[in-house]
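Fig. S4 source data, part A: sequence.
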Amino acid sequence: MDFDKALELFEPVLGFEVHVELNTKTKMFSSAPNNFGSLPNTNVTPTCLGLPGSLPVVNEQAVRYSISLGLALGCQIAESSRFARKNYFYPDLAKNYQISQFDEPIAFDGQVEVELADGRRFEIPIERAHMEEDAGKLTHVGGSTGRIQGAEYSLVDYNRAGVPLVEIVTKIIYGADRDAPELAKAYVSTIRDIVVSLGISDAKMERGNLRCDANISLSPRGSGILGTRTETKNVNSLRSVERAIRYEIQRQAAILAKGGTITQETRHWHEDTGETSAGRPKSDADDYRYFPEPDLLPVVPSPELIEELRAALPEAPAARRRRLRADWDFTELEFQDVVNSNLLVEVTETVAAGASPQSARKWWTGEIARLANASDVEASSLVAPAHVAQLVALVDAGTLTDRLARQVLEGVIAGEGSPQEVVDARGLAVVSDDGALIAAIDEALAAQPDVLDKIREGKVQAAGAVIGAVMKAMKGQADAARVRELVLERAQQ
């Protein structure tokens, strides 16, 4: 159903569960390394594999990170919280249960301010933020979709099993209306900004460091009756969160308008088609047979620790944005260009690495965003902010023109090394030797002997033909401004 028509008939009701992987050195309950990208099944211990006799030990740093996140979300921190066993069988859970928190989370009852593209602010109520361990990762081999349906067999990697997680659960969100897709994107972006500023997670959605389960139901407009919700699982990009919410509104509205019913279920998001598909019937808490984890004591943080962590909190994202805009001296349009592109973190880190704010904005929202759109990926996944800052420095130093810098950027993205390494390997530096430039100018003038006379007659634009010929001869590695200076000097001789 058309989006506008769907909103005439129904009111969307939202809820989000955002999973944040913490960047501790070791896992939540074992000494196994918490590293991304290692060979499969190498970052494991008997505890990760659920072997008999192995016992969990709580990661203290993960607890500190979880408290910091709870405080940043405006939550109350529990005087005592405890872990529970969440029981269900799946091959990526070697123990056949997940250690999580159920009725006694470490943080609860918070609120986060989210700012939309037009500057309007929306308060998102937080129900809880609880600690748990991640599951392993399955790779389904065979078939055309990469999912279990149609696969010939599946491989399991337990490297991720036991990685510390904080799950942030919102309360029911009313009143988003047609802003629902944008609000979903803005909320996840705000959570990403918070965890990055706290330094507790890499928050790279393409790696699964931060994942969103998006819940949505439709209420007949004006009825006040809650509809049946669906949960689109593990959406791993800001763009996809927005698209998934929009699609589910349209899909559910079409079913309800025809008198059908919505199944309470998990759903999978398909980036290629922009659609969701059915997963499994959604389990309620009773289905997981929660009971207190017998091998772990309650977590009882001291008031002194909580106040220490509270004092170390960074600025709230909304306040930080207002400060950055002033510090960078951006117009409202320029700043919204960065925010709407979901590149605030990348631009901030590029500026911190030494680039000017305008240069950082130019490259991220310009060439890098163009390349990302062409490949249908997140811009942040293409290149590191430090490399963008190095690229800007090479342009500022006159080593590269913008045209050459674009070639260097492509080399960096292709994995050829840092900007300087790409320049050296490809020989892309600007030719700064006046002797070489003069030789190329003389050759171009020999082919166009009337150019100097035209310049002497005041037709300075005639120099453009020579400049173009020199740039072509130098394969774009000449400084056009310097070539122009030399041509005009020749005309004065």
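Fig. S4 source data, part B ends here. Residues 391 and 405 are 7 Å apart (CA to CA).
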